[in-house]
Amino acid sequence: MKFFPKRWGLVALGLGAALFFSACGGMRKTTVPLATSLDKTTCVRNADTLLVMLPGLYSTPDEFEREGFVRAVRDNRLAADVMLVDAHIGYYKDKKILERLAADVIAPARRQGYAHIWLVGISLGGFGSLLYAQTHPGELAGLVTIAPYLGERTLGTDIANAGGLAKWNGPLGDASAGTPRTPNETQLWQWLRGYVGFTQTGGARPPLYLGYGLDDRFVFSHRLLAGALPPARVFTTEGGHDWPEWRRLWQRMLPTLPLPGCPG
Length: 264
Prior knowledge:
This protein is an alpha/beta fold and 264 residues long. It has helices at residues 11-24, 62-66, 69-75, 89-93, 97-111, 124-135, 153-161, 185-193, 219-226, 243-253, and strands spanning 36-39, 49-54, 81-85, 116-122, 142-146, 208-213, 234-237.
């Protein structure tokens, strides 16, 4: 039986202002199930690998197509299907994002025969991807986070002052891989601390790939996480927090991912 946390640190994690401005512009309504669209590869009959793409705070799923993310998968001749998920800010505000991802995306994908599921998240979508991996150990084949939101700067400062994630001795909480924890920012960083020295490509803790712009507004936290990852899984580019940077990062990261190629 899965545990879906009753209390989130999300709104307190620096998204309060973003939620306020979203509300001013009209918060989008959530639906059950999550709206998704599937782009199937044509190079194999039934792909066993699925890339699930989660958008950022102000983005919509179709932007992954417009910005060339889906085309890049096809240009690299990867035998993987791509699912675009309308996981907008409303699901985070309602504290339903993990429940809906599990019920509407991951579980159906398993039933359809996908053995290897990757989450690809940008900004807020990167945050959601990490939370899902933290609270659902063993379910994912890999994580790609591009410019992920990682919480308030104050906690990052504490980690930096401790000498980095490897030396940070924040509250330990329940570190059991089989016991999901309330996903507030401190506990997310506790989980991320487990990536220090981690080089495996499977199991309860999926391989994590990180990409970010050197002038991104979240770069302070990105560098802290980068210090805990193998250098080959960290990618940077000039620029800030927008699609041109994210597109360049995806084009560089994609060929390095351990994904199946098309026959021939």
